[in-house]
Amino acid sequence: MKRVTIKDVAKRANVSTATVSRVVNGIGTVTDDNRDKVQTAIKELNYFVNTTASNLKKNSSNVIGIVIPTFTNEYFMELIKGIEDSFVYSEYVFYIASSKDDLDKEKEILQKFRESNVEGVILLTIGGNESFIQELLKMNMKIISVERRVEIDGGIDFIGENNVEAAYELTKKFLSEIPYRDVVLLGGYEELSIGHERIEGAVKALQEKKQEYTYLNGHFNAKISEEIFPDIVTRYPNGCGIISLNNTMTEGVIRAIHRDEEKDYSSKYPVASYGKIKFQSIFKNNIIASVRQYPYQIGVEVSNRLQNKIDGNASETVTKLIRNTID
Amino acid sequence: MKRVTIKDVAKRANVSTATVSRVVNGIGTVTDDNRDKVQTAIKELNYFVNTTASNLKKNSSNVIGIVIPTFTNEYFMELIKGIEDSFVYSEYVFYIASSKDDLDKEKEILQKFRESNVEGVILLTIGGNESFIQELLKMNMKIISVERRVEIDGGIDFIGENNVEAAYELTKKFLSEIPYRDVVLLGGYEELSIGHERIEGAVKALQEKKQEYTYLNGHFNAKISEEIFPDIVTRYPNGCGIISLNNTMTEGVIRAIHRDEEKDYSSKYPVASYGKIKFQSIFKNNIIASVRQYPYQIGVEVSNRLQNKIDGNASETVTKLIRNTID
DNA sequence: TTGTAGGCGTTATCAT
DNA sequence: ATGATAACGCCTACAA
């Protein structure tokens, strides 16, 4: 079955393809009479536009590419929701691709985005593709880096959190509530901004309070953190404060704490968490301080920024930090 | 800055565009000498293919469209991961669009997919677009319905769970562990297969055991279910069994149960849950029976099926049910 | 207001 | 093995 094209419609309606195109796109001038004829022809033939052809001609794509490290992450999903909900140009569509925490895969995706003429890219990088990204920027691709900074000469738009500040405030609050304790700092992802910035903030607060601490790497991973907990207990059998710099790690710690029901770890191992976890209110005896994050809000900002860029109102490179709150 | 095209490369390499195309696509016959010339020209000019033009010519798109009701749902994300991980044709790319539980939006998305010539559609429907979907099927669009059935003449591929069976087994197990109790059946989404099939299975088991029950509608929603719980307590102050037919509702119930710490609801309101929740092991005193779901596995099956369809090895309409397990 | 026709960048047929 | 060239379906000067 051959595809119905603008030509078929034109023939049926006894007008030219140009007129059909005008009707379809709602631009230019067409008499009501002709418009009617075209519209009925469209209905009769069941015509719909071929976006590929249209895009080729217009040198556009109406596609926004989004790169995330993984699909199974609530933070990222909230972020995407924020983008989606506030993106008003309805003709656009989102590619979403997962780099699977792999920098080669990330590069592949970006390359594919370039080949498909995407109008904009929203990138949550896994790191390591800086030079390639720079090349893309040079060709005027509209890229916004989100949550994780891309360290690049000349800069790149960035929207994310103030990790340093939030980790600092979290730690300060935590220390004021559990004085005279040993402290474990549970971090990870040091090669990414979300990793080292949080460490920086926490350490700053620890040093200000002259608080000694042990640093452990939980790799922003629930399982690893859960398995680390027994080591913490061995090292500090009388208890210690745990500062978890990511909610996934907090999840692992909480699971470990509740593994042995009879032992009451709640009071002995108070936790500070950068980020909330599910059922946080139920674990309020364990988690006595936490950073609330606003991924949805970040998504909204990303969306606004991208729309500005698409409209050409974005000459300067911009960095925007969304403020977290401490509970 | 003008785009570098195959023509520019041809000129630079002193060959025809046809030869360049052959090199780029690795088909046809080219001498090593010419291949080298073309490849260096490509590097020098920083050429990359224009997928839009290529697609127009080839009448393809290399795009798989996925429609989900919302991004913020772990089940869907696991499903997508399963699809992604097992989809081997690397030249393909996924559009993922959220219908936001809105049937008009779903239709819009499907229409856009059609206009973009997507090669296949994976649809988690919200219901109500049956006739439009049928129209798409008539034009030979490759659509696989997932998790939620699309009731359509002539049938449509479906991959999902055996909701009736799983709900039946869950209920049977639950009743055998809490005999002589009152029971609340917490359901929802009755207009979708995931809603009414689970009710059907649960009711079957209840009737077999001659167990009376009260049906409440929690709309597969955590908040609503959390708010329903006090009503349950009022109605059954001495306790009752709660069969929650969806994990989001279970989440709400668990939250409500743990709201008042002093009241020990755990033993008085045992829960059966269709689907797991986070920290399930911590709540094992509350949730005494549950259905384990395999969204990732469903994704894998969807991916396999779609690849078969793309390869043309899929004449018959297929229904495949992935077996759940009961814990 | 309408129609003609060229071209977007690529692929693929058909000569050579 | 290679090149010339006609599409793919649409948009848009430009002319009428």
UniProtKB/TrEMBL annotation, chains A, B:
InterPro entries on file: HTH_LacI, Lambda_DNA-bd_dom_sf, Peripla_BP_I, SBP_2_dom
Pfam families on file: LacI (PF00356), Peripla_BP_4 (PF13407)
Gene Ontology molecular function, alphabetical: DNA-binding transcription factor activity; transcription cis-regulatory region binding
PROSITE patterns named among the record's database cross-references: HTH_LACI_1, HTH_LACI_2
Record keyword DNA-binding present: yes
Positions of the HTH lacI-type domain: 4-58
Claim: Calcium is one of the keywords in the record: no
Keywords: DNA-binding, Transcription, Transcription regulation
PANTHER family listed in its UniProt record: HTH-TYPE TRANSCRIPTIONAL REGULATOR GALS, LACI-RELATED TRANSCRIPTIONAL REPRESSOR
Protein name per the record: LacI family transcriptional regulator
